Amino acid sequence: MNEELDYFFCITIVGDPGTGKSNFLKRLFPNLIYEWDNTQKPTRALDFSVFHSSVDQHVVKLLIWDTTGDGHLPKNTVSVLEGPDGLFMVYDITKRKTFESFGKRVKKTQKFAWKEATMILVGNKSDLEDAREVSYEEGRLLAEELGMKFVEISERKNESI
Question: Coil, strand or helix: which one is 15?
Fold first, then answer.
């Protein structure tokens, strides 16, 4: 794409291992034909995607970082958390542990993120209602307490609540 760039945004996705961050990343690209992948391998250290689009005659570029879920970014990659325009913080509604770990994760992330960054708490795997361990209301209340937006999704079924 050789057009002049009007907007550039950097987005980072964080959360515990196995919460579905990588599959969620693939769902963020509306023009891709994507089938949910249950064989998705865990992200090692860091992955990223670049997305170009035109919105209202403006050329937009998104750089989206998909972080490892173990919280151990290599020292030279900690900068992906410094100054993103947006953060998706993903937990698995069927694993309370991934929800409860957010206190530490949010504090650590907010240490690096700039204050104007949009932060969205994402409860993933809403299609697994029978295995739910974290209620929608708990997620909504945590997001409200942390000053974040909130959504529950099923990246497997490409649905949001």
Answer: strand
Higher pLDDT: 144 or 58? It is 144
Token pair in block for residue 11: 């987005």
Burial readout 86-122 (b: 16 or more C-beta within 10 A, e: otherwise) = bbbbbbbbbbeebbebbeebbeebbebbeeebebbbb
Residue boundaries of the structural domains of the chain: 7-160
Q: How deeply is 50 buried, as exposed, middle or buried, from its count of CB atoms within 10 A (0-12, 13-18, 19+)?
A: exposed
**Could you confirm whether domain 7-160 is CATH 3.40.50.720?**
no
Which strand (E) or helix (H) includes residue 98? helix 96-100
Mean pLDDT computed over 49-75? 70
Q: Which residue has the tokens 């860091």?
A: 46
Residue 20 contacts residue 155 (beta carbons within 8 Å): yes
